[in-house]
């Protein structure tokens, strides 16, 4: 029926019929998504052909050839938005991010019997098993010999930085003396506990661009989903995947808070927030952040929603494995008790440093106020 309607209006609208009989016929005749280039050609041809193109389109609609027209056009618009937003960013990021390699990994898994949506679920587990966990383990093992001396060393570094503001040469000399005194670089050793967190940002950024532009390199990605999310390049219209990602995030926050509370109670360590707020307020902020993930996840394609769900679950699993006494004994990492005592010492040092800075500021303000009074 579609072919007969297209041939009927060939004389009136040859270009429109040519496009539909080419790439457009197959896509419109099935529920498979259409690429953005085909959508643009269809729209431009309707305008250029004038009455002929509009008549053909109206006759197609009367014959009910396109059953899901609204969802089809909305899908095209979503793909077009993603392609336009990712085109410039993709060119900028492809210079230093291995976007194509991640896509090759996904295609490799697909060629060896795994579905595309299954490959999207496996990516975070591979990243944590091959990159994040080995890095965190290495940093913890290399930092272990210096944990007992690190709070005192960091305290001296803070005092040195406070006393030598504006005097770079003297600051470097005193920092070198502190490094020789303790046998290690205190700021560098202190930063190792954040390396595992920092390395995850380029990983997630790479996977974001790789998944959101996957359909440009591998068109089968559009049909690589399952059930209600058959097209991995579009967002989930039922909100099931975004809601699942948000629920997993809330569960992850709850489990991590409970784990930290259990360990701090077990080792009799009173932990506090690293910011100038209470720990309860920090936990509430974490829950609010988890809830705010819902609209963000809905704006992402279904393929990246699957990645987010797997990433949240793998992060919670990674946290519990790294806090396991058995895993720490096998990898020669510092024990939980030793590490929690170190964190308690660091918190005490931070409080002392803040009090010293506050007292110094008050003293300077009093001196400046006395000078102003003398001048008056």
TrEMBL record:
Chief place of localization: membrane
Protein name per its UniProtKB record: Inner membrane protein
Molecular-function GO terms, alphabetical: membrane insertase activity
Residue span(s) of domain Membrane insertase YidC/Oxa/ALB C-terminal: 126-322
Membrane topology recorded in Swiss-Prot or TrEMBL: Multi-pass membrane protein
Places the protein is found: Membrane
Any one GO biological process: protein insertion into mitochondrial inner membrane from matrix
């Amino acid at each position: 029926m579609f072919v007969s309607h297209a041939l009927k209006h060939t004389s009136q609208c040859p270009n429109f019929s040519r496009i539909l009989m080419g790439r457009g016929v197959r896509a419109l005749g099935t529920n498979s998504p259409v690429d953005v280039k085909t959508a643009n050609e269809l729209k431009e041809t309707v305008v250029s052909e004038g009455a002929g193109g509009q008549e053909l389109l109206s006759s197609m609609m009367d014959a009910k050839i396109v059953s899901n027209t609204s969802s089809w056009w909305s899908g095209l618009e979503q793909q077009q938005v993603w392609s336009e937003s990712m085109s410039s960013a993709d060119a900028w990021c492809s210079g230093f991010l291995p976007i194509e390699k991640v896509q090759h990994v996904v295609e490799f898994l697909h060629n060896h019997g795994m579905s595309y949506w299954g490959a999207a679920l496996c990516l975070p587990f591979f990243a944590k098993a091959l990159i994040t966990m080995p890095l965190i383990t290495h940093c913890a093992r290399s930092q272990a010999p210096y944990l007992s001396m690190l709070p005192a060393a960091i305290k001296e570094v803070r005092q040195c930085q406070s006393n030598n503001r504006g005097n770079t040469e003297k600051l470097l000399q005193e920092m070198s003396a502190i490094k020789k005194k303790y046998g290690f670089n205190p700021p560098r050793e202190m930063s190792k506990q954040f390396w595992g967190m920092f390395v995850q940002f380029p990983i997630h950024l790479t996977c974001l661009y790789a998944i959101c532009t996957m359909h440009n390199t591998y068109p089968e990605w559009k049909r690589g989903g399952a059930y209600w999310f058959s097209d991995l390049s579009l967002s989930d219209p039922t909100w099931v995947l975004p809601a699942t990602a948000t629920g997993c995030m809330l569960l992850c926050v709850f489990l991590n808070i409970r784990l930290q509370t259990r360990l701090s109670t077990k080792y009799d360590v009173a932990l506090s927030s690293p910011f100038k707020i209470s720990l309860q307020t920090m936990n509430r902020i974490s829950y609010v952040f988890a809830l705010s993930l819902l609209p963000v996840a809905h704006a992402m394609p279904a393929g990246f929603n699957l990645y987010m769900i797997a990433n949240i679950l793998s992060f919670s699993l990674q946290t519990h494995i790294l806090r396991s006494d058995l895993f720490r004994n096998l990898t020669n990492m510092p024990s939980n008790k030793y590490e929690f005592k170190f964190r308690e010492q660091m918190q005490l040092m931070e409080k002392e440093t803040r009090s010293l800075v506050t007292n110094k500021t008050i003293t300077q303000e009093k001196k400046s106020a006395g000078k102003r009074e003398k001048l008056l």
